[in-house]
């Protein structure tokens, strides 16, 4: 009874965002999101396995998201999510403006550039929708579990938030992006979404030791982490 009371009286610890580590994590997080959206404009097939080029770095955004949620809390993670959202929207705007700028005489790739930007725009919409849903679910789940377990069972927070966040992200993203990369049948869509979710979740589980290490280092060096 005493142990339960002590746990109830304690609160989950989080650091303040005004340190050197938080902006670096947000910058890496935002860059990974933009890179993954650009590489996702290409549909990729490994035999029957259908995916897109975003699989290369996108799972790492959830690793950084987990670090932000665990160390700085839901509000700080949400701020990073909104920053990534805004920078992706800015990238899409810049690409579209570039389409309509007069091309130099020696530039022969206007049509190809338009095709890539057109696909990127649909993927931006898909990515931003999935990104907001998935990352918000990921951060919320991470923090909710931490409020119950405090500093214990980090593995449960990381894996639980990954399953929930990646499911929401992948479902929303694939529903919007499938047409942009040429997926037209329901069977291909199911394969695309299911394998995307399983792959991204598996990658996060595999890099769990790295995530553990990064979180431990930042907690130890972050002076505001209580």
UniProtKB/TrEMBL annotation:
Its main location: membrane. The keyword Cell membrane applies. The keyword DNA-binding does not apply. It holds the Pfam family Vut_1. Keywords: Cell membrane, Membrane, Transmembrane, Transmembrane helix, Transport. One of its GO terms (molecular function) is transmembrane transporter activity. It is a multi-pass membrane protein. It comes from the Bacteria. It is found in: Cell membrane. GO terms for cellular component: plasma membrane. The chain crosses the membrane at residues 20-39, 45-68, 80-103, 123-143, 155-183, 189-212. Belongs to the vitamin uptake transporter (VUT/ECF) (TC 2.A.88) family. Q precursor transporter subfamily. Involved in the import of queuosine (Q) precursors, required for Q precursor salvage. This is Probable queuosine precursor transporter. It comes from Mycolicibacterium duvalii.
